[in-house]
Structure prediction request, 228 residues.
Amino acid sequence: KQEVTQIPAALSVPEGENLVLNCSFTDSAIYNLQWFRQDPGKGLTSLLLIQSSQREQTSGRLNASLDKSSGRSTLYIAASQPGDSATYLCAVKPSNTGKLIFGQGTTLQVKP
Amino acid sequence: DAMVIQNPRYQVTQFGKPVTLSCSQTLNHNVMYWYQQKSSQAPKLLFHYYDKDFNNEADTPDNFQSRRPNTSFCFLDIRSPGLGDAAMYLCATSIPRASGKLDTQYFGPGTRLTVL
Prediction:
């Protein structure tokens, strides 16, 4: 059974710092991995999607990497800003199903 | 431009009183999903539709039902809400993998359900 874990559960950094959020999954048979952002009381916004054949994806200050063999993904945020404060969720799509399996998220606070 | 719309954004119901949550999409996507997200927890898939084909998750309680009258709309019916059903309900859409396009799921803003 696929399980997704995100560590740490919460993170607080000063503005301007570069940071890394971690995601691990137990079964390497995945179709893709997706990173989402969720603001308090709101829905999910897709940030980056990495197909199983890819190693990384970049969008602006965000860079997501995928190491399928070790069951790990990271989301790198460069030059963090207070507006980056949110919960970041990692989700994998197993190869044999259409559903997403989510981690519990990392709540990020960027202090001015 | 809203792509996945959920109404209402906030819903209050009484214990045992049936409630319906609505989702509509302007993306013309074949697949629509309903997730339940309790406070500080990961979203949990309840069921999804591939066109008109309904796919229920094995651990989704019978109390939860869904309808998809057309491509654009999908409803979540909770027949007898209990206190444990208070949560954020998220609707999402995607294009099937067979289309060859990116399999990104697009989420709506969610409906927060309170059960009194």
Summary: The first strand of chain B starts at residue 4 and ends at 7. DSSP finds no helices and eleven strands in chain B.
